[in-house]
Amino acid sequence: MGWSWEQIKTEYITTEKSSYRKLAEKYEISLGTLCNRAKNEKWAELKKQHYDKTVTKSVEKIEKSKVDKMTRIIDIADRLLAKIEQAVDELDIQLYKNVEKVKEIEYNNELRPDKPTKEIIHEEEKVIEVRTIIDRKGAQEIAAALKSIKEVQMLKSELDKREQEARIEKLKREAQSESETADIAITIEGGDSSWHN
What we know:
The chain has helices at about 5-15, 20-25, 30-40, 45-90, 135-190, and strands at about 95-105, 120-130. It is α+β, with helices and mostly antiparallel strands. It has one domain (about 5-90, about 135-195). It has a two-stranded antiparallel sheet. Helix 1 (about 5-15) runs parallel beside helix 4, helix 2 packs across helix 3 (about 30-40) and helix 4 (about 45-90) runs antiparallel to helix 5. The longest helix is centred in the C-terminal third of the chain and has 54 residues, at about 135-190.
């Protein structure tokens, strides 16, 4: 005997597709003996608890990742909203550039007094703010940006709803599958001689 009951129990609990029949065949144990031991030690219940913990950890990890991602998206949306507020305040401001050039020319050539010896150009650029009528195109662009921000904020609640519905459906399928497995185990434990070695 190169196995222990604890080893078989652990394998049953931690292996997703393990069954009493497969373990009985693998370890060359009577199926009835294995079923009785499993029933007394509540292996099926322990397997369910292990599975629930594993699923919970996986769901928590996925949810944390989604929450982190949504937090970043919301932070960006908040920063964009601040810029939009600034743009709204500036809808009636037009900026104009005023470039002023000054040219200085030196004539220090004794041989050719009409030919410049040095030419310097000074350029000064000024930006001037002028209040005008509201920029309609700018207002439309701001409205589109606000609509996009609203859609981003609504995205989380829609995703949450779909994820919750998917989780409920998965739990229903698992419960149905476990119920069918439990019915088979009860039939085996009940003494159906066709299942024994």
